[in-house]
Structure formats: structure tokens, C-alpha cells
Amino acid sequence: MSSKAVRLAARAVIVHEKRLLLVNAWANGRSTLLCAPGGGVEVGASLTENLAREVEEETGLTVEVGAPCLVNEFHDPSSGFHQVEIFFRCSIQGSPVIPQTWQDPERIVDRHVWAGETEASGLHIKPDSLVGVAFARTPQISYDPLERIVM
User: Fold this and answer.
1) Contacts of 100 (CB under 8 A, 6+ apart)
2) Measured between alpha carbons, how far is residue 18 from residues 47, 73, 96 in Å?
3) Nearest-angstrom CA–CA distance, 65 and 49
4) Per-position b or e across 119-151, b if 16+ CB within 10 A of its CB
5) What pLDDT, in 10s, does the model give residues 63-102?
6) Which candidate among 74, 90, 92, 93 keeps its CA 20 to 30 Å from the CA of 52?
């Protein structure tokens, strides 16, 4: 059994005008993989506080965090990295415009994509269930089973 801790992350499912907000998952164009904005939680702040902070850092947007809608986990056997992500439906408070000059303080997120359901289905997005959950009409929560990442 591995002694590495499982990392907990919070992610935002933001659908505005029938388009889902996605960000690059890896810095410096290392991959075409897109994901929902968000990231690792910091001790002492709630999941929703962490998520609002992460979305602001990665996009400049202010969001209201709603109900959880998806739990996802993945594991990279080669590095031992294991992450559990809780996705929350979020709504934008204020302008939905992300300035082209916006810079993520961690210099990871440098690409923002607003994708409609049809367009999103043709993109490289993780988790696999994100698009279906984002555009679903039902408020129920979904679980996307452990995925082993093979690069």
C-alpha cells in the first residue's frame, strides 16, 4: 500500500449561454487535455471557498458555488499520484468575459475554451463524464469510477 496521500480537488462546472468553460490541464502546451477550472484544496478553507478562489485565479471570474454534481478520481501508477475531485455546479457573478491578458498566478492555466455540447464532445476532455454531466437536465450527482492514467 502506498504511503502517498490522496489529493483532494474541487472543480467548477460552469455552463453559461449553453457553453461549458474548460481550461488546459497541463502548462506550456504539454497536452491538448482540457478540464473544468479548479484545483487542490487548501487546509482550513471549505471546498466551496477553495473552488471560488481557484476559479478566480485561473480565469478572473467570480462564481457562486452551487450543489455538487460529479465525483471523479484518477490515479497515475507511474508516479503514484491519486486525486479525488468533487465537481460543483457554479454560476458566474458579473461579467463572463475572461480578459485575453489574464494570467494564472501559478502559470498553469493559459487557455480558456467556451464549448457548446456538440463542440465539447469533439475535444480531449477529462473526466469522460464531464460533458454529459454539464449539459444534463437532472440535478443528481454522478460518480465517475477510478481511472488509471496511462501516458
Assistant:
1) none
2) 25, 26, 13
3) 9
4) ebeeeebbbebbbebbbeeeeeebebeeeeeee
5) 999 999 999 998 888 888 899 999 999 999 999 999 888 9
6) 74
The residue assigned the cell 450527482 is: 141
Q: How far is CA 54 from CA 4, 34, 103, 118, 144, in A?
A: 23, 16, 13, 27, 22
- pTM for this entry: 0.89
Strands (E), the chain: 7-16, 19-24, 34-35, 38-40, 63-76, 81-92, 112-115, 142-148
Residue with cell 502548462: 27
In the prediction, which pLDDT does 150 show?
66
Q: Which of 87, 66, 64, 98 is nearest to 134 (CA)?
A: 87
Q: Which of 30, 29, 31, 11 is nearest to 21 (CA)?
A: 11
Q: H or E segment at 134? A: helix 130-134
Measure the CA dihedral 101/104/110/111, to 10°.
Answer: -90
